[in-house]
Amino acid sequence: MRTNDVILQTTTKVVFFIIFLFAIHIFFAGHYTPGGGFVGGLLTTGALVLLLLAFDLKTVQKALPFNFVIVIGIGLLLALGTAAGSILFNVPFFTHAFDDFTLPLFGETSLHTAMLFDAGVYLVVVGSAMTIIQSIGGDA
Amino acid sequence: MEFVLLIFLPIVAALFIPFLFKRMKRIHTGWFVLAVPLVLFLYYATYIPSTMDGGHAISELQWIPSLGISFVSYIDGLSLLFSLLITGIGSLVVLYSIFYLDKNKEKLGNFYVYLLLFMSAMLGVVQSDNVISLYLFWELTSISSFLLIGYWYTRDRSRFGALKSMMITVFGGLMMLGGFVLLGIMGDTYSIRELIASAPDFVGHDYFTLALVLLLLGAFTKSAQFPFYIWLPDAMEAPTPVSAYLHSATMVKAGLYLVARFTPIFAFSEVWVWLVTGIGLLTLFWGSLFAVKQTDLKAILAFSTVSQLGLIMSLLGAGAITFHSDDAVFKFAMFAAIFHLINHATFKGSLFMIAGIVDHETGTRDIRKLGGLMSIMPVSFSVAFIGSMSMAGLPPFNGFLSKEMFLQSMVAIRQFELFQFDTWGILFPVIAWIASVFTFVYSFYFVFRTFAGKRKEGQLPQEPHEAPVGMLVSPIILGVLVVGIFFIPNLVAKWLIKPAVAAIQPNLYSQPGDIDIHVAAWHGFKSVELWLTVGVIIVGALLFISLSKWQKVYGLQPAKFSLNALYDGMMSFSEKGMNRISRFYMTGLIRTYMIYIFAFISVAVLVILFTQDAFVVDMDSFAHIGVYSVINAVILLLAVCFVLLSKTRLAAIIALGAVGYSVALFFVIFKAPDLALTQLVIETVSVALFLLAFKHLPALKDHGETVKTKMTNGIVAIGVGITVTLVALSAHSQKLIPSIAQYYKDTVKTEAGGGNIVNVILVDYRGFDTLFEIAVLSIAGIGVLGMIKLRLGRKENSDENK
Amino acid sequence: MELLMAILIGVLFTAAVYLILSRSLLKVILGTGLLSHGAHLLILTMGGLGGSAPPVLDKEATNFADPLPQALILTAIVISFGVTAFMLVLAYRTYGEHKTDNMNLMRGNDEHD
Fold it and tell me: Which of A23, B7, B618, B690 measures 20 to 30 Å from B471, CA to CA?
């Protein structure tokens, strides 16, 4: 997968961040408007795939030195931990809590434990999809 | 204390055995095991005073109360006697095995785990009051016996013998389960005590005889009665301690226990008396006849066990006569059965141990190579002599007493007048007498061909010498019992036999003290038994002296017509037949299986749709058709056609992507923004995935599919398509319960604090689904990684069978 | 609309089953892809296609589409992605190992029965 396309590479550098920011936005917006962990995760993966197509596998791995299998693990732990955390407060497994806060800068905001769970989903989706793509791409 | 839990003590102990075997290499694992049966024996012995007075003890552990299934430990005279046998002989056998099995060479961890498993199972069999848990333990004895016979699993004969015993005893066990279920239907309870209480009502019930026969099949297979005995000689491949324990003293007596336990229920039946007595006697005769043919020490003992089990079985059958006649002459049979059961355990146990010693010290069990060991192994010879003489029925050994009572009972049968016994009754003492003669012959054959005569130099694999002391302890204890019981039979009767007999014949005795049988060695010159015994000795001695002249007669029986050949034939026939049947439809091709699945789905669903009037189309509920949808549908159809018809893989992959995008458009049209977003991104990533894998993928070829296979595929495919269409329509048209959607709409803000219902369902309402889903996704990801990264040296080691 | 969709789903399933039954390994993969698309649309159609607004709380909207099928499908889409990727790799690794993509030749040999 060695390409030497200057236009693609230059565009990609900009577009990657746009897609990535959009993914983050969609992820956080998920609770109120369409979006969420799955879509956010997949969009992030899409951005990374674009990087992979424009540059080669080694370059991307150097720029983003994650082991995506570990990302899967962190995601699963986060999701399971959020779900199990409710046991500590003596409520059934998977009970979420939420409340409205007034934060400086953000103003009226509601914080939600479901968000943490969704973050777990996000990480697992990115981790799994990237594991699959990197493995296939790296298979000589 | 809930003593029902003690049944499980050996299994619990078995959990620790592998650790002890691994960690404590210096001490033979058997020493730890020995504690288990010893403690249990001492514990159960404390029940003797209570059962002597006709008392009993019950302890219950609920298992499946809704079905009336529980673990019940019911200790009365009969189950106590068996429990003592199991733990007592068990202790001696474990002690013997410590010296028999080398701690450095053998896999003792496995051996003792199996042995303890068996001990629990056997205790469960004899103590269970609930027939279902009795069945459970019964099969567990078969399984542990299977494992123990196959202990030296590298030997072909061991595996063959293990499988054979398993096939036959498990077959019998299943039949027995059928009998139990029928009993449960008749009596509306699974408790044996309650069944016995309502037994008189069963006579004449439609199921009564069927239940009886099924139950007897279980007992006969387990106790190696004719014609099922064939598994027992092959089971002799087990290590000798196992043969002594399972295949002579305890497990094979489970069938006798079963017959004894159910005597109060079935003894009212004519069939019961005939079958139990007749089969028992036939087995006695058959076993003794063929024991003389054998040349392997353990095979002789195996056939003698078969024959002795038949003897006890026939006595149990004769004992059932007391349910039909009040004549005092019939009362001896049941007493004799229990008495001989104890005696057999003592003398046969010691003989097996001696056979093991001979094998261990000389390296062979072939009686043709043995001889003249008397001077080298004097202790072993003495024990073997005591055991054999007891088996032959000579004084002053315990076998003499029970054998006398046996002959007495058989003679008494002539006086029974019901069920055509007045015509055929004379056969019983005649067969019993002939069998006793052969018993005499094989007993002498066993002991004198091994220990007396000239030594055959150079025929033995090892230089013979006397066994170590530890190995001799157990057979000596049993030998002492053989002699001891002869001198104190009435004490043994009071402690053990009478309580057991009273438990079997509640119609005759309300408590053990009522039994007015006194055992005596001398009945005076007028007693028939004495002269029968004298006859046995004279004829038997003559036959033994001339043995070498007539033993060849056995060679006349062609191997083709033996029961073993029948078994082998049945096994290979069923194996081949089953293979042929499964080859017929298991082609090994995924396509065939897929066709089965798809065809079955469409046929089953269509039949149900139309027979149950489930197919309803409600045109009014349909949404209106939009222009965009029609256009999109056309695009989708075109894309599908492209996937089907494309000749190159690149075109097919792109067409598949097109299908995905148009599905995403449908999601947009149908107001599902989350789905549309996800589908769009997924489709992009998927196409990228396909293109990444492109260079690895094979070209599109049809591999010479004929028109005929294409037609078949097409028909199945269209069938599935039509089915799905109809299901979609009728599922949409009839809503049996209102949608939960309204609940979500009402609560999403208040309960979950969210706005996007789909996302809230995913992370909150149905968070469990999502949790498992991401787990599946991770597994898929790691699976892909594994398939690509880990190529486990398959080049060198591609086939483990090579 | 539901009638049209039902027929469309039928076509998708027909095509998918036909491909799955073919001898070429790649066609089997394509078939499973089509099958999952068909299944997603099937769930959506069974739930009903009415509804004039997406299932997102809004001041004006009252006639939502049914959110439950959508949530189920969302899960299914992601799972089917994982499964398709798995099948794809399984297929090409099989092809690499056995040097054939003919399903008729891929069967256990008798020794391993």
Answer: B7
Q: What is the ipTM of this complex?
A: 0.93
Say how far apart CA B246 and CA B111 lie, in whole Å: 13
A12–chain B nearest CA distance, Å: 16
Query: Taking CB atoms and an 8 Å limit, are A131 and B689 in contact across chains?
Result: no
What is the spatial distance between Cα B436 and Cα B68, in angstroms, rounded to a whole number?
46
Instruction: Read off the tokens for A9.
Output: 């590479």
Q: How many domains does chain C have?
A: 1
Whether residue A90 is contained in a domain is answered as yes
Under 8 Å between Cβ of B676 and C77: no
Is residue A3 scored above 60 in pLDDT? no
Beta strand segments in B382-425, E: none
Each residue's pLDDT tens digit, C11-43: 999 999 999 998 888 888 899 999 999 999 999
Judged by CB atoms closer than 8 Å, whether chains meet at A129 and C81 is answered as yes
- The 10 Å Cβ neighbour count of residue C52 is 11
Q: Which of residues 35-94 of C touch B (CB under 8 A)?
A: 37-38, 40-42, 44-57, 64-68, 70-71, 73-75, 77-79, 81-86, 88-93
d(CA B529, CA B510): 30
Answer yes or no: is A113 within a domain. Answer: yes
Task: Give strand ranges (E) for B268-422.
Answer: none
Domain that holds residue A66: 6-138
With a cut of 70, list the residues of chain B below it in pLDDT: 1, 418-422, 792-802
Rounded to 5 degrees, φ, ψ at B536 are -60, -45
C31 in a structural domain: yes
Q: Are C67 and B758 in contact (CB under 8 A)?
A: yes
- Give the CATH number for residue C83: 1.10.287
Q: Do residues B13 and B36 make contact, with C-beta atoms less than 8 angstroms apart?
A: yes
Considering the domain boundaries, does residue C55 fall inside one? no
Residues of C in contact with B624 (CB under 8 A): 1
Identity at B655, one-letter amino acid code: A
Q: Has residue A1 been placed in a domain?
A: no
- For residue B776, the model assigns a pLDDT of 92
**Residues with Cβ within 8 Å of residue B18, at least 6 apart in sequence:** B109, B113
Residue B454, φ and ψ in degrees, nearest 5:
-90, 145
> B36 and B122 in contact (C-beta within 8 Å)?
no
C105 — pLDDT class (breaks 50, 70, 90) = confident
Min Cα distance B756 → chain A (Å) is: 4
The domain of C36 spans 2-50+65-101
**C12 domain-assigned:** yes
Whole-angstrom distance, CA of residue A55 vs CA of residue A5:
9
* pLDDT for the residue B103: 83
Backbone angles phi, psi at B490, to 5 degrees: -75, -25
Pair B60, B110: CB distance under 8 Å: no
Q: In the prediction, which pLDDT does B301 show? A: 93
pLDDT over threshold 80, residue C89: yes
Q: Do A46 and B689 touch (CB under 8 A)?
A: no
Tokens of B406: 């046996």
Residue A83 lies in a domain: yes
Helix (H) or strand (E) holding A101: strand A98-103
The count of domains in chain A is 1
Strand partners, B128: B73
- Chosen for mutation from C58, C78, C79, C97 (greatest number of chain A CBs closer than 10 Å) is C78
Contact of C103 with B589, CB cutoff 8 Å: yes
- Hey, what are C99's tokens? 């040097």
Handedness of CA B424, B430, B433, B437 (dihedral sign): negative
Q: With respect to residue C34, please indicate whether it lies within any of the assigned structural domains.
A: yes
β-sheet bridge partners, residue A103: A107
Distance (Å) from the alpha carbon of C78 to chain A's nearest alpha carbon: 8
Q: Are B183 and B135 in contact (CB under 8 A)?
A: no
Tell me the helix, strand and coil percentages in chain A, rounded to 5: 70, 10, 25
